[in-house]
């Protein structure tokens, strides 16, 4: 009986676990597909890097001549249907910070 309990516990614990970088990969994919990011940077290719120096979850996005920042906001609009205890990736929205840093072309 004890082994059955351990097996039951491990099964449900592993079901809720995501691969280590799965959430970050989803965030980067959404940033790169964002029409707002493409409109602001205006150039291709665009690359996104997690900015560990900034507070919160912020990504630096770069094009050939410019760079800016995108903040990840967990929850909010479109995430209302996700109840607490929901298993899977975290629902999030993007907030594009409009301040761009551009080099001279």
Q: Going across the major beta sheet, what is the strand order?
A: 1-2-3-4
Distance between the termini: 71 Å
- What portion of the residues fall into strands of 2 or more residues? 25-35%
Helix/strand class: alpha+beta
Beta strands, count: 4
Number of domains: 1
Summed up, what is this model?
The protein has 105 residues and is α+β, with helices and mostly antiparallel strands.
List its salient traits.
105 residues, alpha+beta, four-stranded antiparallel beta sheet, 3 helices, 4 strands
Tell me what the structure shows.
With 105 residues, the chain is α+β, with helices and mostly antiparallel strands. The chain has one domain. 32% of the residues lie in helices and 28% in strands. It is built from three helices and four strands, in the order αααββββ. It has helices spanning 2-16, 22-33, 35-41, and strands at residues 47-50, 58-62, 66-74, 92-102. A four-stranded antiparallel beta sheet has the order 1-2-3-4, with helices on one face. A hairpin with a 7-residue loop joins strand 1 (47-50) and strand 2 (58-62). The longest helix has 15 residues, at 2-16. The radius of gyration is 18 Å and the shape is elongated. The model has no long low-confidence stretch (mean pLDDT 76).
List the helices and strands and how they pair.
Layout: H1 2-16, H2 22-33, H3 35-41, E1 47-50, E2 58-62, E3 66-74, E4 92-102
Antiparallel strand pairs: 1-2, 2-3, 3-4
